[in-house]
Backbone:
């Protein structure tokens, strides 16, 4: 009995338990609303269905959330990802729109390389500000968040660049081996990041820098180089996400591409159990967080609720998930459940350990 | 040769300016330079009305920035301000449309923001969740409420509102609106609270070092909840001023305003880590942002996106300056 209870406590105490429960609840709600929700069918060798759509649409968010997880693991934050996505998308689309043959594969590859290169430069800029000059991450990336949007509009000269390029479109809506191409990219990047961080010492090094940068430096880790690196990786992920978003609609709008994606990505990371204080990161959790957010958005669309009102639901879900995961909230709840507990530990002791 | 000691002396006197005043002075200098450039380039710029218009157009921004200064001084951040401004304007417009008495509408509208701020402050304090996440949720919530009330813009035709919007207080040949007076009043109250009250000292103490503040026996929890409530109140007042200015409530108004506000506070010399900064600096920060916009409007050939790029560049310069000042004091 007690072992079963302990096991149950172990399951409910797992950091991914509540996010998964919420995800499941959302899916069940969708099935009740529309029974055909779960059906996935094979048409012309491509997979179609609501579930596939949700995963395909969440691909950009997954990518951004991956980069964001690494940044947050070092105790930083990257607010500029949305702007970086907009800039890289705008650069790629601008290059393609200037070419005579927009359908040529070479043109698209050059465009993507160009956009990627610009994004890497922006990542380097963030990295220098944070790791080199030592500016607080939230402000350092705020600069690019504000200026980057202006930059994207400057590149597009305030216009929405529309392109007509089939190879570029593939990034957003194409298929590969029955799966949508966007899912394949997201999966590949996820695996790449997971292997690089979890099968080598890199992940642990990143976590140690997040735990205490100075101590890691004394232990022989090049903290600054690691901090620099994660911002570049984050910008690279944002760039791929930017290509997907612009390819989805075959146009680049400097104002709209990746708007608020940084907030969604931070949410996804936090829902996945990574603390904003740094020192730990969970890639799987971030992916589930991103899926949860996209499922929420899609369900709201599917249930004919005004998309803007979906923000209300998002607020509720965010607060509920964060509350359930907060140690202080759990401690309170637990105390209330088991009433006759002898001298209650003051909440203050737990709070003092957490830096503001 | 004899000039060297003479030159050195004023230099030394200049360094005697406390380091914490340097960012504010730099902002003031920048503001003067920008104004001088404006006056030298455009004849109409020297008209005093240009200055008054800056206040008329940005009164609501100023009010919200005062609230944000409190939050940032404690080392927190409030992302919900833009949405709360929009929600307040929406609620007022919608209730006025239903024929409610303006005084009652004003009361309800002014209560909504602080209530949300209080709730967010409680969650931040009692459950130890980062302000960033909590106020982000608040931002989503308030924006969602806006569209839930109405997806389209609601015009305001109420007599009290239109009088408040159109009434001109003449100062010589020029005029200001009622909103400007309200904004300046909020600014004065905010500055006084921070400088002369116990709450103000607590705010600085918590921003300097929360742990020490707690050990000193300062009411950390109460103060933290108070600053988010103050920020909510300022956003609500800002929302009312915005509804005076536009005479409508639109669900997508003031999107991204939180960034402008944070930028203004940072340019005004307040450290985002908390503990150092002044409401007066925030006023200068807001003025710098609005003068940039005015200059770009006067120029006519520059496009609106240059505003964003210039603001980003200024942010960079000021953060670098703060960093340098910080290194020197160490």
Residues:
């Amino acid at each position: 009995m007690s072992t079963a209870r302990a096991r149950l406590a172990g399951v409910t105490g797992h950091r991914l338990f509540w996010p998964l429960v919420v995800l499941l609840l959302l899916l069940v709600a969708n099935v009740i609303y529309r029974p055909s929700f779960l059906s996935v069918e094979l048409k012309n060798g491509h997979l179609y269905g609501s579930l596939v759509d949700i995963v395909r649409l969440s691909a950009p968010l997954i990518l951004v959330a991956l980069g964001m997880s690494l940044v947050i693991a070092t105790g930083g934050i990257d607010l500029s990802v949305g702007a970086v996505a907009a800039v890289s998308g705008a650069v790629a689309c601008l290059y393609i729109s200037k070419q005579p043959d927009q359908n040529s594969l070479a043109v698209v590859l050059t465009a993507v390389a160009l956009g990627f290169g610009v994004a890497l430069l922006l990542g380097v800029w963030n990295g220098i500000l944070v790791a080199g000059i030592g500016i607080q991450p939230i402000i350092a990336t705020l600069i690019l968040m504000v200026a980057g949007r202006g930059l994207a509009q400057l590149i597009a000269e305030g216009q929405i660049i529309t392109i007509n390029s089939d190879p570029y479109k593939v990034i957003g809506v194409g298929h590969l081996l029955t799966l949508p191409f966007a899912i394949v990219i997201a999966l590949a990047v996820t695996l790449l990041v997971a292997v690089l961080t979890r099968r080598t010492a890199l992940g642990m090094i990143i976590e140690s820098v997040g735990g205490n940068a100075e101590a890691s430096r004394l232990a022989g880790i090049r903290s600054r180089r690691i901090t620099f690196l994660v911002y570049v990786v984050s910008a690279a992920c944002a760039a791929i996400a930017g290509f997907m978003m612009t390819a989805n609609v075959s146009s680049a709008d400097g104002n709209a591409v990746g708007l608020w994606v940084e907030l969604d990505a931070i949410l996804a990371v936090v829902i996945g159990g990574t603390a904003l204080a740094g020192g730990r990161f969970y890639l799987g959790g971030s992916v589930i967080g991103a899926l949860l957010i996209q499922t929420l958005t899609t369900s709201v669309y599917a249930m004919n609720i005004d998309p803007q009102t979906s923000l209300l639901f998002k607020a509720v879900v965010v607060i509920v998930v964060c509350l359930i995961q907060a140690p202080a909230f759990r401690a309170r709840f637990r105390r209330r459940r088991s009433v006759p507990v002898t001298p209650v530990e003051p909440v203050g002791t737990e709070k003092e350990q957490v830096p503001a | 040769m004899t000039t060297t000691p003479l030159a050195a002396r004023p230099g030394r006197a200049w360094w005697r300016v406390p380091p914490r005043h340097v960012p504010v002075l730099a902002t003031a200098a920048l503001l003067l330079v920008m104004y001088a450039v404006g006056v030298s380039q455009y004849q109409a710029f020297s008209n005093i009305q240009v200055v008054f218009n800056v206040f008329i157009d940005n009164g609501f921004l100023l009010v919200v920035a005062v609230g944000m200064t409190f939050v940032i001084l404690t080392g927190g951040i409030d992302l919900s301000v833009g949405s709360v401004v929009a929600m307040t304007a929406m609620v007022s417009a919608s209730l006025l449309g239903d024929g409610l008495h303006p005084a009652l509408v004003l009361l309800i509208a002014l209560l909504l923001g602080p209530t949300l701020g209080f709730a967010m402050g409680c969650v931040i304090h009692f459950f130890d969740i980062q302000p960033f996440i909590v106020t982000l949720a608040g931002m989503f919530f308030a924006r969602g409420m806006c569209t839930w009330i109405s997806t389209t813009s609601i015009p305001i035709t109420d007599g009290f509102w239109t009088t408040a919007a159109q009434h001109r207080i003449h100062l010589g040949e020029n005029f200001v609106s009622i909103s400007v007076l309200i904004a300046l009043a909020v600014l004065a109250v905010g500055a006084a609270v921070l400088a002369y009250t116990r709450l103000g000292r607590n705010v600085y103490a918590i921003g300097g070092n929360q742990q020490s503040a707690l050990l000193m026996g300062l009411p950390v929890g109460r103060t933290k909840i108070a600053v988010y409530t103050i920020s909510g109140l300022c956003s609500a007042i800002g929302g009312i001023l915005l509804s005076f200015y536009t005479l409508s409530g639109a669900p997508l108004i003031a999107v991204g305003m939180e960034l402008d506000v944070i930028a203004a506070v940072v340019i005004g010399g307040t450290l985002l880590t908390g503990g150092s900064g002044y409401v007066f600096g925030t006023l200068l920060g807001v003025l710098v942002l609005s003068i940039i916009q005015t200059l770009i409007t006067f120029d006519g050939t520059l496009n609106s996106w240059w505003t964003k790029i210039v603001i980003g560049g200024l942010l960079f310069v000021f953060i670098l300056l703060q960093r340098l000042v910080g290194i020197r004091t160490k």
